[in-house]
Amino acid sequence: MGSYSRAAFLAVGSELLRTSRLDTNSLLVAPKLLARGVELVEKRCVPDDAAAIARAVEELLGRGELVLVSGGLGPTADDVTREGVAQALGRKLVRDQGLLAALAERYRRLGRPVPAIAARMAELVEGCQVLPNPRGTAPGMWLDVGAKAVVLLPGVPEELETILELHVLPRVQGRELVVRTLKVGGRFESEVEQRVQHLYQRFGREKVTILAGRGVVDLVLLAEGPGELAAMEEAFAAVLGEDLFGRDETSLPEAVLAACRNRGFLLATAESCTGGLVGALLTQVPGASEVYVGGVVAYANPLKTRLLGVSEALLAQVGAVSREVAEAMALGACRLGAQCGLGITGIAGPGGGSAEKPVGTVHMAVATPTRLVHRMVRFGGSRNTVRELAANFALDLVRRTVREG
Would you say the pTM of this structure is higher than 0.85? Predict the structure, then answer.
C-alpha cells in the first residue's frame, strides 16, 4: 500500500471539450479518495491528443503523488491515452499476448468476431501492472513513477468505479482526513464569509470551503482527524449560531419539517411569485405529509381574496407585493388547517418592477399561534434565480420562527 496525500485527475476526451458531455468521473473519484485520506488538488480535461495528454500528465505529477487518468483506453484511433502516458514517462508500449488471448476469448463468449483494432487494447505501457476490468474490455494500468504513481482507468463510469474499488483504493492510504459540511440558511455567501473569516487564522484557510447555493450556503470543513474536526465544528457552529440549520446531508426542507414536528405544528403555505415551489421542496421529503397539509398558489389577486381571505381593500391600498399582504396570506394559510402558515409574494421579473418595488423584491411572512414575523429581501438574478432564492429564504424564515416560539 502506497502513501499518497495529494492526487490529481485527468479526464481525456475531445467530447468533454466540444460537446455537452460532462466529466462525471472526477466527481465519483474525489469523495472516494478523500475517504482514504487523499485530497484531490486538481482536475483537468484534455482532448484525444497524445501530446496534450503527455504534457498534462507531466505537469500533474508535479502537483500530486497520485495521478488518475480516465478515458482513451479503447480500440479506436482517437483512444491515445496509452501513447500519451508512455510519452510522458519515457516508456514504450508493449503488446501483451496473454491479454490479447483474453480479449479474443471475451469476444468469443459474446459471439462476435475479434475486430483487428481490438488488439490495441492489449498494448500496455512498459512496466505497468494490469488492473483487470470485469465490466468491460479495456483493462486499467498502475504505473509506479518513483514514489509516485499514475493510474489509467476506462472512461465508462461503471468500469472506472469497479476498477477503482477493486484494484486502486485498496493500495492507497493517505492522511486521516475527515469532512463535515455545516448548512447555513437565510444568508448570502458574503455574509457567511464575514462571520467566519477570523477563524481562518486558527484553522487554515485551505481547510474551509464556502459553497453558495440559492438560499443555502454550505461551509465545508476539512480536518486531519476527528479531534481537529470537533474543534473546528465547535468554533464555526458557535459563530454561525441560529443560521446553522443542519450538517452534511440535511436539507433545508427537512430542517423546517423537523422544527414544525418538534413544536407539534402543522404547516400550510400560500405562494404567489414562487408558484408552488415551496410546496414542491417540502413534498420532496419522505414523511412530509405528517407536517405539511398543503398550500395555495394564489398568483392572481382575486385568488388571494377568495382562497386566503386577503381583502380587496388591502390589495388596492398597498399592492400585492407588500408586508401587509404577505402577512394576510400567512394568516390565510393557517385557515387551511395549520398552526403555522407561510405567505410569500414578490416580483420575480424580468418585468413588473418599479422604482419603489424593483424586480427581485420579495415579502415573506410566517404566522403561528403567538407570532407574526415578516421579512423583505431584494434578490438579484434571473427570474428562476429570484424564485429559488425566495423559496429557500422563506423556508428558513419558517424554521427560525418556529424554533424561536
Answer: no
